[in-house]
Write a structure and sequence with these properties.
alpha/beta; 7-stranded mixed sheet; 3 helices; two-stranded antiparallel ribbon; 138 residues
């Protein structure tokens, strides 16, 4: 018997494969537009992966306090990421910078298409060829 929530299974319906063979699942809380050649593809939000930010005191200078921040995965998001990764090892899970920092081995961040680095939200286009990772590679 499958004990995982139905929204886990529904998320797999939102996997998108691009013309270069790259497959993605969007873990942001909004749709993301990718540019695949001349075509724009809107990838729907499939499952929101969340993390908490914890602060650690570092130092003070005058009345300014400096802290180090740590991104900690939320428990439900951990369960989903582990479940999804086991079932779909060939799919990139794309998400926010905070999610990627909390899940460095599992979530990658989208990079903009050249010329779309500093545009409004409705005009953003993401690359299907390049992603940012925080994983300890090599």
């Amino acid at each position: 018997m499958n004990t995982y929530p139905i929204n886990y299974r529904r998320s797999e319906k939102n996997i998108v494969e691009f013309s270069n063979g790259v497959k993605v699942l969007n873990t942001c809380n909004h749709d993301v537009t990718f540019q695949d050649g001349e075509k724009l593809i809107s990838v729907p939000s499939a499952y929101l992966v969340n993390a908490k930010i914890e602060e650690e005191y570092h130092s003070e200078e005058g009345s300014a306090q400096f802290v180090k921040i740590k991104y900690v995965p939320e428990e439900e998001s951990k369960k989903f990421v582990n479940w999804f990764r086991k079932r779909n090892p060939d799919v990139l899970m794309v998400g926010s910078m905070i999610a990627a920092l909390a899940f460095p081995e599992d979530i990658v961040v989208m990079t903009p298409v050249p010329g779309y680095e500093r545009v409004r939200d409705g005009q953003k286009r993401k690359s299907i060829e390049k992603f940012t990772t925080f994983a300890n590679v090599g």
